[in-house]
Amino acid sequence: MTLKTIAVDALPQSVEDFLALRDQLAETPEGGAALLVLAMLCYAQAPELPIGQHCLTIAVDRSRLVGSPTGYKGWAVAKRDFDMIRRQLVGREYVARSYFQGTAPETGYALPAPPYTLAISNNPHSGDREAGRYKVFVASSGAATPRPVTLLRNNRGYWKAVEWSSLLTGVQPPIAPADDDL
Questions:
Q1: Which residue, among 133, 171, 145, 146, has the nearest Cα to 32 in the 3D structure?
Q2: What is the distance in angstroms between the CA of the first residue and the CA of the last residue of the chain?
Q3: Would the pTM count as exceeding 0.90?
Q4: Rounded to the nearest 10 degrees, what angle do helices 29-45 and 79-89 cross at?
Q5: What is the mean pLDDT of residues 44-57?
Q6: Among 30, 139, 171, 178, who pairs with 120 as Cys (CB 3.0-4.6 Å)?
Q7: CA distances to 17, 43, 172 from 46, in Å
Q8: 154 class by beta-carbon count within 10 Å (0-12 exposed, 13-18 middle, 19+ buried)
Q9: pLDDT in tens, 93-115
Q10: Count of alpha carbons within 13 Å of 136, Cβ hemisphere only?
Q11: Backbone phi and psi for residue 45, each to the nearest 5 degrees, phi listed first
Q12: What is the pLDDT of residue 52?
């Protein structure tokens, strides 16, 4: 098993910021997985804004997109996939934050000071990078084991998520301090 740490100095504040991160990170499967987690966080923090939906569209493989007049460059995450993302993240943005190193249930998964880092590993069964399909595992501070993400390399050399459902499964809920007003 090989462990790689991906770090970003700042969270994207616009689609342009996200595209710059894509250009920097998505040349490896680990970077592509980190990009998906960043897109999940962008969406979870402000689901009513288009930035999160556009970032998700950029982070996932074309096979998981559908045409959309309001999507990014005419594309959006397929309804079934997007509905799952929405159900699992809206009101529970701590799920996305749990993938960043330095977060914990005891702190409500508050993000640490930058740089924001993710620990991503592979194993002997991860696949063949040269073939353009690879599975990595993203560590979560709210789960006992890292969560798998399968990525495909597109025609421009960027690694995009094609299967990520495990990233959306629950994590240990944030631990709220007891309110003792006695």
A1: 133
A2: 51
A3: yes
A4: 70
A5: 96
A6: 30
A7: 16, 6, 22
A8: middle
A9: 999 999 999 999 999 999 999 99
A10: 29
A11: -75, -25
A12: 97
Question: Is residue 43 a contact partner of residue 92, using CB atoms and an 8 Å limit?
Answer: no
Find out whether the peptide bond into 115 is cis, omega within 30 degrees of 0.
yes
**Tokens standing for residue 127:** 């696949």
Answer yes or no: are the C-beta atoms of 99 and 139 closer than 8 Å. Answer: yes
10 Å CB burial of residue 52 (0-12, 13-18, 19+) is buried
Residues forming a β-bridge with 57: none
The pLDDT, as a whole number, for residue 178 is: 65
Tokens found for residue 50 = 């288009």
Q: Which amino acid is at 130?
A: E
pLDDT of 176 over the 80 cut: no
What does R_g of the chain's alpha carbons equal in angstroms?
16
Any idea where the domains of the chain sit in the sequence? 2-168
Tracing tokens 């495990």 back to the chain, one arrives at 166
Q: For residue 1, give the DSSP letter.
A: -
Report d(CA 89, CA 83) in Å as an integer: 10
* Distances, alpha carbon 22 to alpha carbons 25, 29, 58, in Å: 5, 12, 8
Q: What is the DSSP string of 69-137?
A: EEEETTEEE-HHHHHHHHHHHTT-THHHHTTSTT--GGGTT---SSSEEEEEEE-TTSEEGGGTEEEEE
